[in-house]
Each structure stands twice: as structure tokens, then as C-alpha cells.
């Protein structure tokens, strides 16, 4: 039976919303509530960002019993090791490796060529998979990436050991129809796509985070990255409650 994995990133991306920063005790309290709510995966933080975030992820990882706990890492070995160390003791740990995939971000932010980005992704995901079985690989700014390169980059992540491939509309640029088409394009070009979970991470800069998420789910995505109340960087992320209730109320559409 197909089902949608609810990946909550309130504790990571949501915390980047102005006024939503949490200390370690507050993050642990919210993590307990997310576990009670029944999300499938909670992204507890970005361990390499600060000692405080490392400590919070580590505490949440040890406390959670009925939910997968994810930790974010850039596609560099030190970040991956930091994330894996923070997840030690978790019942169901996940390392979430990401790298930019659009020409603009590769050139201006990473200052890397596409070939260098492919090599970085392969090395980081492979290293993550050597330490933790459940690896997610995300391409940042994927909605503005060249579709053929995006498919190639995601395929590299899959071959290196990622079981979940995530397409991020990082700056809220996508439109629902084109986002769904991008997902179909990518899925058709990755060997073994039927054995992988495809996810989406949408921002709300144009007010379309939920619409883009739902369009992607109809197109074949099976993981929705969401936050409580749509909290998140800039205009926010896709709202957990809106996505879930759309799926629940309109089962005639989504099945």
C-alpha cells in the first residue's frame, strides 16, 4: 500500500523563522509533541551549525522511540560525521545530505563546477551510507536547476546509497504544474526509481508551498517535507496541517 511519509522540519527549517528560535529544552519539548502527533520523520537540527544544535539533536535522538530522527549535513565529510555522531543512540536515525544543484547556486554559493558538485555528492552520500543505513539526499534550489543535470545528480545520490531523494524548491520559485512535470521527468530518468522514495521540500515565497507539495504528491512523490503552521525561512514552508488535511479530506483526488 502506498503511503505518504510526513517529514517534519519544524525543529530545523521552522526554527529559522523570525521569533521561532528554540533552546535545547524547547526543542526537546516540541520533539515529544511531534512524536505524539505521529509524524514519520522529524528533522531535529543541523548538528554542524553549532554546539547547541549538536546537543539538541543528540538529546532528541536518544529520547525519540517511535519516530525517525534526521540530522542535516552539507555534502562534506565533516558535516556528515557530525550528523552521524549526533544521531548516536537513535532508534531510527537518518542522515540528510544536501547540495546545491542550480547553476546560480553552484557558481555563486559553492563556487564549484557541475562535475565537482557531482563528485562531492557521491563522496558525501557514500560516506553517510557507510555509517547509517537510512540516508536522504536533497538537491537545493532544484526547481531552478537544469532538469537533465538534476536527474544526473539525484541518480548519483541513489547509486551512492540514498534511499530517499528530495527535490527542494528552496526559494519558492516553482509553479504547481511545472513542479509536477519536473518530478515526473526526474523519476523517469533514474534507474530503479520504483525502489526509491521521492520527496519534496517547498517554500512559500509565492504562496504556493502547499500547492506545489500536493502537485508533486499527485505526480508520484511519497514524502512531504513540512512544518507546523508553515513556519520556516523567509515566507515559510509547506504547512503540515494543510498538506495532511488536503490528503485526508480529498481522498477522492489523492487516493
Task: Describe the overall structure.
With 255 residues, the protein is of the alpha/beta class. It is built from 10 helices and 8 strands. The chain has helices spanning 24-37, 51-63, 77-86, 103-110, 114-131, 147-160, 176-188, 209-219, 240-249, 251-254; strands at 5-8, 41-45, 68-74, 93-100, 135-140, 164-169, 197-202, 223-226. An 8-stranded parallel barrel has the order 1-2-3-4-5-6-7-8, surrounded by 8 helices. 53% of the residues are buried. The mean pLDDT is 97.
Put the structure in a nutshell:
With 255 residues, this protein is α/β, with parallel strands linked by helices.
List the helices and strands and how they pair.
Blueprint: E1 5-8, H1 24-37, E2 41-45, H2 51-63, E3 68-74, H3 77-86, E4 93-100, H4 103-110, H5 114-131, E5 135-140, H6 147-160, E6 164-169, H7 176-188, E7 197-202, H8 209-219, E8 223-226, H9 240-249, H10 251-254
Parallel strand pairs: 1-2, 1-8, 2-3, 3-4, 4-5, 5-6, 6-7, 7-8
Helix pairs in contact: 1-2, 2-3, 3-5, 5-6, 6-7, 7-8
Bin the strand percentage.
15-25%
Whole-Å distance between the termini? 11 Å
Assembly state: single chain
Principal-axes geometry comes out as globular
Low-confidence stretches: none
Structural class: alpha/beta
Order of helices and strands: EHEHEHEHHEHEHEHEHH
**Helical amount:** 40-55%
List keywords for this structure.
8 strands; alpha/beta; 255 residues; 10 helices; eight-stranded parallel β-barrel
Amino acid at each position: 500500500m502506498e503511503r505518504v511519509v510526513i517529514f517534519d522540519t519544524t525543529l530545523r527549517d521552522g526554527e529559522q523563522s523570525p521569533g521561532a528560535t528554540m533552546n535545547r529544552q524547547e526543542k526537546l519539548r516540541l520533539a515529544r509533541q511531534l512524536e505524539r502527533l505521529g509524524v514519520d520523520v522529524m528533522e531535529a537540527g543541523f548538528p554542524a551549525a553549532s554546539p547547541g544544535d549538536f546537543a539538541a539533536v543528540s538529546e532528541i535522538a536518544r529520547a525519540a522511540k517511535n519516530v525517525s530522527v534526521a540530522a542535516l549535513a552539507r555534502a562534506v565529510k565533516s558535516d556528515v560525521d557530525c550528523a552521524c555522531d549526533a544521531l548516536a543512540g537513535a532508534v531510527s536515525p537518518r542522515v540528510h545530505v544536501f547540495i546545491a544543484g542550480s547553476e546560480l547556486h553552484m557558481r555563486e554559493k559553492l563556487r564549484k563546477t557541475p562535475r565537482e558538485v557531482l563528485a562531492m555528492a557521491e563522496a558525501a552520500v557514500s560516506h553517510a551510507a557507510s555509517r547509517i543505513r537510512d540516508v536522504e539526499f536533497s538537491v537545493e534550489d532544484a526547481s531552478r536547476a537544469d532538469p537533465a543535470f538534476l536527474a544526473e545528480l539525484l541518480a548519483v545520490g541513489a547509486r551512492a546509497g540514498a534511499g530517499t531523494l528530495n527535490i527542494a524548491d528552496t526559494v519558492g520559485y516553482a509553479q504547481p504544474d511545472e513542479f509536477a512535470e519536473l518530478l515526473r521527468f526526474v523519476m523517469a530518468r533514474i534507474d530503479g526509481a520504483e525502489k526509491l522514495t521521492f520527496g519534496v521540500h517547498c517554500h512559500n515565497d509565492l504562496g504556493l508551498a502547499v500547492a506545489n507539495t500536493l502537485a508533486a504528491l499527485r505526480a508520484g512523490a511519497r514524502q512531504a517535507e513540512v512544518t507546523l503552521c508553515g513556519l520556516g525561512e523567509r515566507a515559510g514552508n509547506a504547512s503540515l496541517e494543510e498538506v495532511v488535511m488536503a490528503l485526508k479530506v480529498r481522498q477522492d483526488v489523492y487516493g
